[in-house]
Amino acid sequence: MDHRSALADFATRHRRLFVLTGAGCSTESGIPDYRDVNGGWKRPAPVNYQAFMGEDATRRRYWARSLIGWPTMGRAQPGEAHRALARLEAAGRVEQLLTQNVDGLHDAAGSRRLIDLHGRIDTVRCMGCETRSPRAALQAELLRRNPDWAALEARAAPDGDADLDGRDFSTFDVPACPHCGGLLKPDVVFFGESVPRERVAAAHAALAAADAVLVAGSSLMVYSGFRFVQAAVAAGKPVAAVNLGRTRADELLALKVERPVGEALAELSVQLEAAPA
Ligand SMILES: [Zn+2]
Description:
By secondary structure, the protein is of the alpha/beta class. The chain contains ten helices and nine strands. Helix 1 (3-13) crosses helix 10 (261-274), helix 3 packs parallel to helix 7 and helix 4 runs parallel beside helix 10.
């Protein structure tokens, strides 16, 4: 049996799938992956929560980089993996979709049984009054306050971080919350920050109702995602993974498919539509 039929066979035997997705689902949408095929860092790690909350300089640097990177993120469109998972959900195959991505592309593709484990980059949260606001609105304010950076934004490469090495962030003007003067933070879980407890509980409840786990486009190097695979295995639920390169869970997998995730999931959705359970 080749990998194609093995994956379809897995999904046929385990009808209610708990799907866990990662950066590999979004790379074809132009959103850079932070890890290489061996699970190591390709680039410096994203900002740390304690540094962001505690250091003015870290916040200036973060928002300056974010100003440059946002247009790429804001323009990104769902890819084949997002569309295939939305079709699988419509066909009743997805008990829960849990994504480690913060790009909102599963939502944009139409997935509704969705938990954004690490939050959403298109939303800004005030750490003082908890008001949420659109990231796009903050972009306009950042550009208004920092006209020199606006010129840089206009000609930035898709991976805008590269243009910023050695720049002086000390004059970058970061707005405070217009309601309470509080500190603004993207509504995503940073490194060193905990995932909200109720979000983790909702995901574990969905896992308990599922027959099996399908990991799609994730190396599972971040523990907040990996722990759901550990929990599935402890509960006797089989785990399959579609990922190019090794994953932290390779020894725990019932099935490993090393193919591009969009291609493999698109094929799976067609195969299941052709042979409904
Ligand atoms: Zn506020």
